[in-house]
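hi! just following up on the protien thing from before. the input was this:
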Amino acid sequence: MTRTAENARTMLRHLMIAAILSLALSVVMAVRPAVAQEDASASFLAPFPKGDVYSVAVIGDDMAEGLWYGLAETFATDARVQVRPKPIMLNGLMRPDHDEKVVALEEDLKRDPPAVAALMLGAWDRVSLRTAAGKRFAVGSPEWRQEYSQRADRLMKMMKRLNIAVYLVGLPNVRKFDANDDVQMMNDVLRERAYVNGMKFIDAYAGFLDENGGYSGWGPDLTGKIVKLRDGDGVYFTMAGNRKLAHFVERDLRRDLKQAQAARSVPLLGGEDEQAKINPGKAVVKEGGEGEPGTAAAVAAAGSAAVKAAAPSEGDQAADNGRISLKTVTPTGREDVVTLDIVRPAIPASVVALVTRKESPDRASQLGDVLVDRIASGINVMSTFTPPSSSAAGGAGRSGRLSPTQSAYYRVLVKGERLAPRPGRADDFVWPRPEPEPITIKPAFDPLETGSAEPPPAEEPPPAKKRRP
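and the predicted 3d structure came back as:
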């Protein structure tokens, strides 16, 4: 009986421990998604870079030099991103002078810190480790992996102290099987250290595999065309391969640029530097009585007084605000009415006169098509194109004037259309060629009219005038 009671108590104790562990596990699983969502909402790039332009530095070995070429060509027309004129060379992590190279790199980055860095290493790291005591450790041994991890950690922590967003590009596959195993081992170490130090790891290994998962020097480029991507040594890339390698970095970088742009619209979540840009004067609106300086009521009263003081000039269009109501159906089937305010601000007379400017007393001129281009510092440049009228070119009337969207410059340069060639022009490649019109030769005289097969006598030329002596 005593043994049965002890077994029952033991079973009850085990059940209680299992219940406690299940409860703790459920709490942890509930918290982890919330943490992941919080991290996903944060911007990897700084929302307010220096000069409102993201400076990109490419750091690494010979492969990084090819990556720099691809990134410079990719972002050549993007005003938000500026790739540095040349890469910063750092020949691997396993060189004897690695510590001195890292110190020199830190000094270089401190002088002109970039906002983004693309780091690619490992092409020269397949060398054995030699310690100060004279011992050697083969590539991939536990001692070698530990030292490689520590050196990568020191480099990443240095760049993290400088607030640089780092994209660590992994090594691609290579032709030799033994070297390919070392490449995967180094990628595993670098991926782990990048995750620990809060950096993004770009996996380039899978992007250059063939259909069987092996090495191939040929493959699809960015347009899908099969071209040569790798050099004859089986390690480095061709020009097309460098562009494809840069595409993997560009894909993540552009995604983070959009996320950073979205973070700019929430200025209250920024730090002190961001707040200084939003509110340079550090103005504070306090709650208080009406008329007291610094209160919201006083600020609103001052604003309304300033609006009243500025009398509208002749030709100004007043603000015209409206409101519409839309019916929406919720997932539960209930109808909700959403009210939207449509705001149309007041339009000054100068803007009205510009839009409706006249070329003739009886007809207003169309302003034309506006092309918008975003440049640095968040500025939108708008250019207006209006084709000249036929009257301006010396024609009669304006009936032959085309719409701006139908003009040749707009269809080719804006829409990207290909205009149909004119028949017989150099770019007319129509085949088969249309049959030419038959050539008809008219006789000099008509026998039916003259009644004779002989040609009529030629008319005598008029006598020449006699010159006076």
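Residues 50-273 form a domain with the Rossmann fold fold (CATH 3.40.50.1110).
Confidence is low (pLDDT under 50) at residues 27-40, 306-310, 363-367, 389-399.
cheers
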